[in-house]
Amino acid sequence: MYPRDLGDRLRARLDQRPDVVPAAGDRLAAVLIPVVDADDPLLVFTQRTDELPRHAGEISFPGGMADPVDRTLQETALRETREELGIGSSAIDVLGATDPVHTFVSSILVVPFVGWLSERPILHPDPGEIAEVLEFPISALMEAETSVEWERPDGHVYRGSAFELDGRTIWGATGAMLHAFLGHLRELTT
Question: What global pTM score does this model have?
Fold first, then answer.
């Protein structure tokens, strides 16, 4: 369905050295968009536990806040993926980054890195952070994408991409990151 050299084609399109400067008051974070190689590659998501202080219960990519031990945001994404899912960095070929996404609710500038996994990993989710691991084929995500405008309980309006699959909704910052990633794929396959 997708070209066998999809990872190489993505690498050529993605930012190899993202240079991000947060606005005053913003904090930096990074996530990994894990892509599992297959005829119809899978993306791996996490559903956060309801006990977490930020974005509880939401579907996201593995990742989190930059830590002083991280020399780069790519290291942040890889460290968080190891902590949340038990996937070691040696199993991940980082292809590059998509455009940063700003979370307005929590004032975080998130850099999404695309990580290629040549085989399906054995996952060891951290039960303190991860309620469930979700995997969706890229083709299903592309078909599910819609543009939405939702009024939130706090009065703000969310305008952006949403993905409804298997009774789950991916939206917000993760929806924006997913939309950007799928945009790269659409340009590669048309």
Answer: 0.94
